[in-house]
Design goal:
The protein is an alpha+beta fold. The protein has 15 helices and seven strands.
Amino acid sequence: MTSKQSRDRILRGDPNTPLWVGMVALRLVTYCFAVVATITHQPDYQRPWLSWVMLGGITAWTAYTVPAYLRGYGRKPAIVYTDVLLTCAMLLTSLWILAPEHYILTPLITTVWASSAPVALAVLRGWPHGFAAGLLVAICTAVARGVINLDVTRDAVLLCGAGLVIGMSSAQARASAEQLRRALRTEAATAERERLARSIHDSVLQVLARVRRRGNELGGDAVELATLAGEQEIALRKLVSSGPQESGPAGETDLGGRLQMLRSPRVQVAVPGAEVLVAEEVASELLAAVGEALTNVANHAGPDAHAWVLLEELPNELVISVRDDGPGIPEGRLQAAEAEGRLGIARSMCGRMSDLGGSVELETTPGEGTEWELRLPRPAGQRRADGKGAKR
Protein backbone atom coordinates (compact mmCIF):
# COMPACT_ATOMS: atom_id res chain seq x y z
CA MET A 1 0.00 0.00 0.00
CA THR A 2 1.42 3.40 -0.99
CA SER A 3 1.67 6.31 1.42
CA LYS A 4 -1.12 8.11 -0.47
CA GLN A 5 -3.42 5.08 -0.21
CA SER A 6 -2.63 4.78 3.49
CA ARG A 7 -3.40 8.48 4.00
CA ASP A 8 -6.71 8.17 2.13
CA ARG A 9 -7.67 5.12 4.19
CA ILE A 10 -7.01 7.01 7.43
CA LEU A 11 -8.99 10.04 6.28
CA ARG A 12 -12.01 7.97 5.27
CA GLY A 13 -11.91 5.22 7.90
CA ASP A 14 -13.81 4.88 11.16
CA PRO A 15 -11.35 5.35 14.05
CA ASN A 16 -13.51 3.12 16.24
CA THR A 17 -13.31 0.07 13.98
CA PRO A 18 -11.02 -1.79 16.44
CA LEU A 19 -13.57 -1.16 19.19
CA TRP A 20 -16.35 -2.49 16.96
CA VAL A 21 -14.29 -5.63 16.30
CA GLY A 22 -13.83 -6.08 20.04
CA MET A 23 -17.55 -5.56 20.62
CA VAL A 24 -18.40 -8.21 18.00
CA ALA A 25 -15.96 -10.62 19.63
CA LEU A 26 -17.66 -9.99 22.97
CA ARG A 27 -21.06 -10.66 21.43
CA LEU A 28 -19.95 -13.95 19.88
CA VAL A 29 -18.33 -15.20 23.08
CA THR A 30 -21.33 -14.25 25.22
CA TYR A 31 -23.69 -15.77 22.64
CA CYS A 32 -21.93 -19.11 22.99
CA PHE A 33 -22.29 -18.82 26.76
CA ALA A 34 -26.02 -18.06 26.38
CA VAL A 35 -26.51 -21.16 24.21
CA VAL A 36 -24.78 -23.42 26.73
CA ALA A 37 -26.67 -21.84 29.66
CA THR A 38 -30.04 -22.26 27.93
CA ILE A 39 -29.42 -25.92 27.19
CA THR A 40 -28.06 -26.62 30.67
CA HIS A 41 -30.92 -24.99 32.57
CA GLN A 42 -33.84 -26.42 30.59
CA PRO A 43 -35.10 -28.35 33.67
CA ASP A 44 -35.35 -25.03 35.59
CA TYR A 45 -37.64 -23.36 33.06
CA GLN A 46 -41.39 -23.34 33.52
CA ARG A 47 -41.84 -22.63 29.81
CA PRO A 48 -38.98 -24.36 27.96
CA TRP A 49 -40.56 -23.63 24.59
CA LEU A 50 -40.33 -19.89 25.26
CA SER A 51 -36.65 -20.26 26.13
CA TRP A 52 -36.05 -21.81 22.70
CA VAL A 53 -37.98 -18.98 21.04
CA MET A 54 -35.84 -16.41 22.86
CA LEU A 55 -32.65 -18.30 22.01
CA GLY A 56 -33.75 -18.25 18.38
CA GLY A 57 -34.28 -14.49 18.63
CA ILE A 58 -30.85 -14.03 20.21
CA THR A 59 -29.33 -16.16 17.46
CA ALA A 60 -31.07 -14.22 14.67
CA TRP A 61 -30.15 -10.82 16.12
CA THR A 62 -26.55 -11.91 16.66
CA ALA A 63 -26.37 -13.19 13.09
CA TYR A 64 -27.61 -9.81 11.83
CA THR A 65 -25.55 -7.48 14.02
CA VAL A 66 -22.18 -9.25 13.74
CA PRO A 67 -21.69 -8.53 10.00
CA ALA A 68 -23.55 -5.22 10.30
CA TYR A 69 -21.16 -3.91 12.94
CA LEU A 70 -18.08 -5.39 11.28
CA ARG A 71 -18.81 -3.99 7.81
CA GLY A 72 -20.08 -0.66 9.06
CA TYR A 73 -23.62 -0.51 7.72
CA GLY A 74 -25.01 -1.29 11.15
CA ARG A 75 -23.15 1.48 12.96
CA LYS A 76 -26.20 3.72 13.00
CA PRO A 77 -28.13 5.12 15.97
CA ALA A 78 -31.40 3.44 14.92
CA ILE A 79 -29.83 -0.02 14.83
CA VAL A 80 -27.77 0.33 18.00
CA TYR A 81 -30.64 1.79 20.04
CA THR A 82 -32.81 -1.06 18.76
CA ASP A 83 -30.07 -3.41 19.92
CA VAL A 84 -30.30 -2.03 23.47
CA LEU A 85 -34.11 -2.07 23.59
CA LEU A 86 -34.37 -5.54 22.08
CA THR A 87 -31.82 -6.83 24.59
CA CYS A 88 -33.85 -5.39 27.47
CA ALA A 89 -37.06 -6.91 26.08
CA MET A 90 -35.49 -10.36 25.73
CA LEU A 91 -34.02 -10.07 29.21
CA LEU A 92 -37.45 -9.32 30.71
CA THR A 93 -38.96 -12.45 29.15
CA SER A 94 -37.11 -14.30 31.91
CA LEU A 95 -40.12 -13.42 34.10
CA TRP A 96 -42.20 -15.91 32.05
CA ILE A 97 -39.44 -18.43 31.36
CA LEU A 98 -38.03 -19.02 34.84
CA ALA A 99 -40.01 -20.57 37.64
CA PRO A 100 -40.42 -18.20 40.63
CA GLU A 101 -38.20 -20.35 42.82
CA HIS A 102 -35.40 -20.04 40.25
CA TYR A 103 -35.39 -16.23 39.84
CA ILE A 104 -32.45 -15.81 42.21
CA LEU A 105 -30.06 -18.61 41.22
CA THR A 106 -30.79 -19.51 37.60
CA PRO A 107 -29.21 -17.29 34.91
CA LEU A 108 -31.58 -15.06 32.98
CA ILE A 109 -32.32 -16.11 29.42
CA THR A 110 -29.89 -13.56 27.95
CA THR A 111 -27.16 -14.23 30.54
CA VAL A 112 -23.98 -12.23 29.83
CA TRP A 113 -25.03 -11.73 26.18
CA ALA A 114 -26.94 -8.65 27.39
CA SER A 115 -23.66 -6.87 28.16
CA SER A 116 -22.74 -6.40 24.49
CA ALA A 117 -25.55 -3.94 23.69
CA PRO A 118 -24.38 -1.20 26.12
CA VAL A 119 -20.87 -1.66 24.77
CA ALA A 120 -22.13 -1.13 21.20
CA LEU A 121 -23.89 2.09 22.18
CA ALA A 122 -20.80 3.28 24.05
CA VAL A 123 -18.67 2.77 20.94
CA LEU A 124 -21.18 4.64 18.77
CA ARG A 125 -22.19 7.57 20.98
CA GLY A 126 -19.64 7.85 23.80
CA TRP A 127 -19.65 7.29 27.53
CA PRO A 128 -22.89 9.09 28.55
CA HIS A 129 -24.98 6.87 26.27
CA GLY A 130 -22.96 3.77 27.12
CA PHE A 131 -23.34 4.42 30.85
CA ALA A 132 -27.09 5.01 30.47
CA ALA A 133 -27.52 1.83 28.42
CA GLY A 134 -25.63 -0.17 31.04
CA LEU A 135 -27.83 1.30 33.75
CA LEU A 136 -30.99 0.44 31.76
CA VAL A 137 -29.90 -3.18 31.32
CA ALA A 138 -29.04 -3.34 35.03
CA ILE A 139 -32.51 -2.05 35.96
CA CYS A 140 -34.13 -4.66 33.71
CA THR A 141 -31.97 -7.30 35.38
CA ALA A 142 -33.20 -6.20 38.82
CA VAL A 143 -36.81 -6.29 37.59
CA ALA A 144 -36.36 -9.78 36.14
CA ARG A 145 -34.74 -11.00 39.35
CA GLY A 146 -37.35 -9.37 41.54
CA VAL A 147 -34.69 -8.43 44.06
CA ILE A 148 -31.66 -6.17 44.43
CA ASN A 149 -28.84 -8.13 46.01
CA LEU A 150 -25.06 -8.26 45.78
CA ASP A 151 -25.12 -10.14 42.47
CA VAL A 152 -27.49 -7.66 40.83
CA THR A 153 -25.47 -4.73 42.16
CA ARG A 154 -22.25 -6.28 40.86
CA ASP A 155 -23.81 -6.71 37.42
CA ALA A 156 -24.93 -3.08 37.45
CA VAL A 157 -21.44 -1.86 38.32
CA LEU A 158 -19.87 -3.96 35.57
CA LEU A 159 -22.45 -2.90 32.96
CA CYS A 160 -22.20 0.81 33.76
CA GLY A 161 -18.42 0.61 34.09
CA ALA A 162 -18.07 -1.07 30.71
CA GLY A 163 -20.25 1.59 29.07
CA LEU A 164 -18.24 4.33 30.75
CA VAL A 165 -14.76 3.02 29.91
CA ILE A 166 -15.54 1.93 26.35
CA GLY A 167 -17.36 5.21 25.71
CA MET A 168 -14.40 7.27 26.91
CA SER A 169 -12.07 5.19 24.73
CA SER A 170 -14.36 5.77 21.76
CA ALA A 171 -14.38 9.54 22.27
CA GLN A 172 -10.60 9.62 22.62
CA ALA A 173 -10.17 7.54 19.47
CA ARG A 174 -12.31 10.00 17.52
CA ALA A 175 -10.37 12.99 18.85
CA SER A 176 -7.02 11.36 18.03
CA ALA A 177 -8.21 10.45 14.55
CA GLU A 178 -9.32 14.03 13.90
CA GLN A 179 -5.91 15.33 14.99
CA LEU A 180 -4.26 12.83 12.66
CA ARG A 181 -6.51 13.86 9.77
CA ARG A 182 -5.64 17.51 10.31
CA ALA A 183 -1.94 16.68 10.45
CA LEU A 184 -2.16 14.70 7.20
CA ARG A 185 -4.06 17.50 5.47
CA THR A 186 -1.47 20.00 6.66
CA GLU A 187 1.33 17.74 5.42
CA ALA A 188 -0.28 17.45 2.00
CA ALA A 189 -0.88 21.22 1.83
CA THR A 190 2.72 21.90 2.84
CA ALA A 191 4.07 19.58 0.16
CA GLU A 192 1.92 21.27 -2.49
CA ARG A 193 2.96 24.72 -1.26
CA GLU A 194 6.63 23.76 -1.46
CA ARG A 195 6.15 22.53 -5.02
CA LEU A 196 4.46 25.79 -6.01
CA ALA A 197 7.11 27.80 -4.17
CA ARG A 198 9.88 26.19 -6.22
CA SER A 199 8.01 26.92 -9.44
CA ILE A 200 7.29 30.54 -8.44
CA HIS A 201 10.86 31.11 -7.32
CA ASP A 202 12.19 29.95 -10.67
CA SER A 203 9.80 32.13 -12.67
CA VAL A 204 7.73 34.96 -11.17
CA LEU A 205 10.10 35.98 -8.38
CA GLN A 206 13.06 36.09 -10.76
CA VAL A 207 11.12 38.38 -13.10
CA LEU A 208 10.03 40.72 -10.28
CA ALA A 209 13.58 40.91 -8.95
CA ARG A 210 14.90 41.77 -12.41
CA VAL A 211 12.21 44.45 -12.90
CA ARG A 212 13.11 45.98 -9.52
CA ARG A 213 16.84 46.10 -10.28
CA ARG A 214 16.40 47.38 -13.82
CA GLY A 215 13.89 50.04 -12.75
CA ASN A 216 16.28 51.41 -10.13
CA GLU A 217 19.07 51.46 -12.71
CA LEU A 218 16.98 53.42 -15.23
CA GLY A 219 15.72 55.98 -12.71
CA GLY A 220 12.97 58.49 -13.43
CA ASP A 221 9.46 57.10 -13.77
CA ALA A 222 10.87 53.57 -13.75
CA VAL A 223 11.69 53.94 -10.03
CA GLU A 224 7.99 53.81 -9.14
CA LEU A 225 7.63 50.62 -11.19
CA ALA A 226 10.69 49.20 -9.43
CA THR A 227 9.17 50.03 -6.05
CA LEU A 228 5.90 48.31 -6.91
CA ALA A 229 7.76 45.27 -8.23
CA GLY A 230 9.82 45.16 -5.03
CA GLU A 231 6.71 45.29 -2.86
CA GLN A 232 5.07 42.48 -4.80
CA GLU A 233 8.27 40.45 -4.66
CA ILE A 234 8.38 40.77 -0.86
CA ALA A 235 4.69 39.91 -0.52
CA LEU A 236 5.02 36.90 -2.81
CA ARG A 237 8.11 35.61 -1.01
CA LYS A 238 6.26 35.92 2.29
CA LEU A 239 3.27 34.08 0.85
CA VAL A 240 5.22 31.11 -0.48
CA SER A 241 7.41 30.85 2.63
CA SER A 242 4.55 30.89 5.13
CA GLY A 243 2.99 27.67 6.34
CA PRO A 244 -0.48 26.63 5.23
CA GLN A 245 -3.38 27.92 7.30
CA GLU A 246 -4.63 24.94 9.27
CA SER A 247 -8.34 24.62 9.79
CA GLY A 248 -9.48 24.21 13.37
CA PRO A 249 -12.46 22.29 14.67
CA ALA A 250 -15.75 22.64 12.83
CA GLY A 251 -14.16 24.35 9.82
CA GLU A 252 -12.58 27.19 11.79
CA THR A 253 -9.40 29.08 10.89
CA ASP A 254 -7.04 31.48 12.63
CA LEU A 255 -8.10 35.01 11.71
CA GLY A 256 -4.82 36.44 12.97
CA GLY A 257 -2.82 34.21 10.65
CA ARG A 258 -4.98 35.21 7.70
CA LEU A 259 -4.55 38.91 8.46
CA GLN A 260 -0.77 38.48 8.68
CA MET A 261 -0.79 37.70 4.97
CA LEU A 262 -1.73 41.35 4.31
CA ARG A 263 1.60 42.58 5.68
CA SER A 264 3.76 44.57 3.24
CA PRO A 265 6.38 47.36 3.41
CA ARG A 266 3.53 49.88 3.74
CA VAL A 267 1.10 47.78 5.80
CA GLN A 268 1.86 46.69 9.36
CA VAL A 269 -0.29 44.01 11.03
CA ALA A 270 -0.61 43.32 14.76
CA VAL A 271 -2.59 40.34 16.10
CA PRO A 272 -2.90 38.55 19.47
CA GLY A 273 -0.31 35.92 20.33
CA ALA A 274 -3.00 33.23 20.66
CA GLU A 275 -5.06 31.97 17.75
CA VAL A 276 -8.35 33.75 17.09
CA LEU A 277 -10.55 31.04 15.60
CA VAL A 278 -13.49 32.01 13.41
CA ALA A 279 -15.50 30.14 10.80
CA GLU A 280 -13.88 29.95 7.35
CA GLU A 281 -16.63 31.99 5.69
CA VAL A 282 -16.46 34.64 8.44
CA ALA A 283 -12.69 34.96 7.99
CA SER A 284 -13.08 35.35 4.22
CA GLU A 285 -15.66 38.12 4.62
CA LEU A 286 -13.56 39.97 7.20
CA LEU A 287 -10.46 39.74 5.01
CA ALA A 288 -12.42 41.12 2.07
CA ALA A 289 -13.63 44.06 4.18
CA VAL A 290 -10.11 44.79 5.44
CA GLY A 291 -8.80 44.46 1.89
CA GLU A 292 -11.27 47.11 0.73
CA ALA A 293 -10.04 49.48 3.45
CA LEU A 294 -6.41 48.91 2.40
CA THR A 295 -7.36 49.42 -1.25
CA ASN A 296 -8.80 52.81 -0.33
CA VAL A 297 -5.55 53.68 1.43
CA ALA A 298 -3.54 52.75 -1.67
CA ASN A 299 -5.86 54.66 -4.01
CA HIS A 300 -6.63 57.80 -2.02
CA ALA A 301 -4.13 58.29 0.82
CA GLY A 302 -1.13 59.11 -1.34
CA PRO A 303 1.95 57.20 -2.55
CA ASP A 304 3.79 57.58 0.77
CA ALA A 305 0.90 56.61 3.06
CA HIS A 306 1.27 53.75 5.51
CA ALA A 307 -1.45 51.62 7.08
CA TRP A 308 -1.72 49.70 10.34
CA VAL A 309 -4.07 46.75 10.90
CA LEU A 310 -4.82 45.76 14.50
CA LEU A 311 -6.86 42.73 15.57
CA GLU A 312 -8.27 42.77 19.11
CA GLU A 313 -10.30 40.05 20.79
CA LEU A 314 -12.46 41.59 23.48
CA PRO A 315 -14.68 39.61 25.87
CA ASN A 316 -17.78 40.10 23.73
CA GLU A 317 -16.55 40.98 20.26
CA LEU A 318 -13.74 41.03 17.72
CA VAL A 319 -12.42 44.42 16.62
CA ILE A 320 -10.28 45.00 13.53
CA SER A 321 -8.86 48.52 13.21
CA VAL A 322 -7.42 49.79 9.92
CA ARG A 323 -5.61 53.13 10.35
CA ASP A 324 -3.58 55.18 7.89
CA ASP A 325 -1.52 58.38 8.00
CA GLY A 326 -3.01 59.87 4.84
CA PRO A 327 -4.82 63.20 4.42
CA GLY A 328 -8.12 61.89 5.80
CA ILE A 329 -11.52 61.78 4.13
CA PRO A 330 -13.23 65.14 3.51
CA GLU A 331 -16.71 65.48 4.95
CA GLY A 332 -19.36 64.27 2.52
CA ARG A 333 -16.85 62.47 0.29
CA LEU A 334 -18.23 58.98 0.96
CA GLN A 335 -21.81 60.06 0.31
CA ALA A 336 -20.74 61.68 -2.94
CA ALA A 337 -18.88 58.54 -4.04
CA GLU A 338 -21.94 56.41 -3.33
CA ALA A 339 -24.13 58.83 -5.28
CA GLU A 340 -21.72 58.54 -8.21
CA GLY A 341 -22.12 54.76 -8.19
CA ARG A 342 -18.80 53.90 -6.53
CA LEU A 343 -20.06 51.51 -3.87
CA GLY A 344 -16.82 49.96 -2.58
CA ILE A 345 -17.25 51.19 0.99
CA ALA A 346 -21.03 50.75 1.10
CA ARG A 347 -21.11 47.24 -0.34
CA SER A 348 -17.73 45.67 0.36
CA MET A 349 -17.20 46.92 3.91
CA CYS A 350 -20.53 47.98 5.40
CA GLY A 351 -22.52 45.35 3.50
CA ARG A 352 -20.23 42.49 4.47
CA MET A 353 -20.16 43.47 8.14
CA SER A 354 -23.92 43.90 8.20
CA ASP A 355 -24.38 40.41 6.75
CA LEU A 356 -22.14 39.02 9.51
CA GLY A 357 -24.11 40.84 12.20
CA GLY A 358 -21.32 43.35 12.81
CA SER A 359 -20.81 47.06 12.30
CA VAL A 360 -18.37 49.57 10.79
CA GLU A 361 -17.21 52.77 12.50
CA LEU A 362 -15.24 55.56 10.85
CA GLU A 363 -13.02 58.16 12.47
CA THR A 364 -11.34 60.65 10.16
CA THR A 365 -10.02 64.17 10.39
CA PRO A 366 -8.67 66.11 7.40
CA GLY A 367 -4.89 66.06 7.57
CA GLU A 368 -4.72 63.45 10.36
CA GLY A 369 -5.51 60.18 8.62
CA THR A 370 -8.41 57.74 8.73
CA GLU A 371 -9.33 54.84 11.00
CA TRP A 372 -11.90 52.17 10.28
CA GLU A 373 -13.16 49.89 13.04
CA LEU A 374 -14.83 46.62 12.05
CA ARG A 375 -16.72 45.14 15.01
CA LEU A 376 -18.06 41.60 15.09
CA PRO A 377 -19.97 40.17 18.09
CA ARG A 378 -18.42 37.02 19.52
CA PRO A 379 -21.34 34.63 18.72
CA ALA A 380 -20.77 35.30 15.01
CA GLY A 381 -16.99 35.33 15.34
CA GLN A 382 -16.77 32.19 17.45
CA ARG A 383 -14.02 32.12 20.08
CA ARG A 384 -10.27 31.98 20.51
CA ALA A 385 -8.49 28.64 20.53
CA ASP A 386 -7.85 28.73 24.31
CA GLY A 387 -11.53 29.57 24.97
CA LYS A 388 -10.73 32.86 26.71
CA GLY A 389 -11.34 36.44 25.69
CA ALA A 390 -8.49 38.88 25.44
CA LYS A 391 -8.33 41.84 27.79
CA ARG A 392 -7.13 45.32 27.15
